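User: I want to check something. If I give you two sequences, will you return the structure for each one separately, not as a complex?

Assistant: Yes, each is folded on its own. Here is the first sequence with its structure:
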Amino acid sequence: MALRSFTSPASFAKTHKQIQPNKALPLFSISFSTPKCHAYTIKNPTTSLKAKPNFQLEDVIESQQFDRDLLNGIFEVAQEMEAIEKDVSSPGSNMLKGYLMATLFYEPSTRTRLSFESAMKRLGGEVLTTENAREFSSAAKGETLEDTIRTVEGYSDIIVLRHFESGAAKRAAATAKIPVINAGDGPGQHPTQALLDVYTIKREIGRLNGIKLGLVGDLANGRTVRSLAYLIAMYPDIKIYFVSPDVVKMKDDIKDYLTKSGVEWEESSDLLEVASKCDVVYQTRIQKERFGERIDLYEAARGKYIVDKKVLEVMQKHAVVMHPLPRLDEITVEVDDDPRAAYFRQAKNGLYIRMALLKLLLLGW
């Protein structure tokens, strides 16, 4: 297995706090022909995942930083975290005792923020949090993101950041000397959501190879579908269907990436036809907050594609409906009782994935 790295303007390595400093892994970064940074190292390339390889995650910024071996390793740790969550007396429930996580959320969040905070507490750590940091932090006074990060890293061991600007997480990671997790950066990416989505697909469908995936709704502004497209493209025999109103079609950068990665994709205006073919129907809401003053465009897009009983009737028995939540009217409540409605199980899986990431970022493998 080769060294992999993040895409970023600079090349550097971080030193992170370890429970056992004398056993901390050496970190290094190298330069490629294109700018790279935040490398994770592989001490012994021949070591199997089950033997807990010496990958070193430094930050979680974008889906492209992962490969299939690393994903498999993260998913194995997530299963371990599920066992810990179900047994509060487990020794593992105190593995992050003495660690502090800072959550900086410049945009609203329920599931992401609470699941990260729950993940930290279930592993014995503590949380420093600010909600609506855009208004109720020094950002309202004009403080730069970089200055905020430099300050907060003095109080904590890891930072979880949600920001309204695409690329903000990369800026934060380039500034911080402690791990940074991207919890969503505007219309950019949401890599931890993509991780939990792929983990959910694996658990619900039983495989990740040969998946037919329908992405529905706001594909232009949806950071969740962008991150998921990058991640699922790492598996063979994938086909992706894009179903969206014209004003929020999937952007060309994702289409070009899929084409270059050998992933088959097509656009469709027929949700019923797509749903009949797919293993996963991944619905998203039309994001009013991304339309600015163009409310007319929002109203034109809203309600065009809805998952309801008609969609369930054409779906295959093994297929599932997923949604990153929150939903508005794009999935009717009558769908909730169908066993193929996986979105609340999907949200719960987010806890296990985020527990795994906190463990790996702070303690290693």
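And separately, the second sequence with its own structure:
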Amino acid sequence: MSESALSETLPVIDLDVFLSQPTQSIRVQEECNKAADALITYGALLVHDSRVSEEDNDAFLDLIEDYFAQPVEDLKKDERPEIHYQVGVTLENTEKPKCAVDEPCLDIIANLDPAERPLDISGHHPDPKCRFFWKMGTPPPYETEYPALNAPNVVPQAPRISEKWESTMEKWGHSMKNAVESIAEMTAIGLGLPREFIKDAGKYGPHLLGPTASDLVKYGGNDTILAGFHTDLNCLTIHGRSRYPGLNIWARNTGKRIPVRFPPSGRYLLVQAGKQIEHLTGGLIKAGFHEVVVNEATLQTVERRKETHSDRPNIRISSTFFWHLSSDYELVPIHKLSERANAFNLSQIVDQRTVYERMKVGQQVQK
């Protein structure tokens, strides 16, 4: 797929320009403005980063597919319900989409054109996806008011998986972390803030590599909801390319549902805005709503992979990385951005005005 075809859905930000040219250059400034504008308008963007290795992504997806293809009794060994699944595996039908019982969120759905609405989550059924959380944060060199759970990362027990687990998770996780932190810098510049403003605010964030897995044999019916309509709690979320389509996002400025399309190859990642950057910008950037569903494109890919990869598990993996601000960072809307947000909100189809109170990031997470 050409870059021009990609641009019909989401703006494509070129990290290579940012990383190879002086910050003051016109080209870099234009690309930074483009990144900030994309997050304001869509709550999401595609990023091209030549540092990202296709081989690393494939190795990661293969490993996670193999992991979730294990018998459920083996997976349950990696559950840590006593610490609220903060590390290790969360099995299917555990997580529920919060939006199903959240009035402001339901109002947003009701205000969308019926043709642009997400699949119905009103039954409040748990998502059939599984998840694995792998911590990738740097512990702060100070005593935090919000001590993270000290549970160590979980390494699966099966020898063929455990021997390459940590190296594969760390390698792909760092690729996405490097990319999203560069986008944080570009966004700051595009918003008229110091380059390091957002990145430094997340220096000791409790970042998580959190791949999700959906069994397309069990849950492969058309219009199956794999992850119900929701936003993310953290600052910025970044995804690698999945082998199966099905991710839809909603553009803030139009209320239109956009199916996210990655090219079949190429060094692209998807970045989405979360609640922490929404708070920081006083709502100028809004956390992006999204869902993952089984649709016609998913089913076509399933049939194609049965022929081309008959030896591989039929599991949809999303290589999600949640980039957080530091728990002790004080979230307070930046005044000049709040003023821009107020003007911008007046022109919106759905006015989502929210009061952004001063609070620590740790409080925001607890709330």
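Because they were folded independently, the notes below concern the second chain alone. The chain has a mean pLDDT of 89. The chain has twelve helices and 16 strands.
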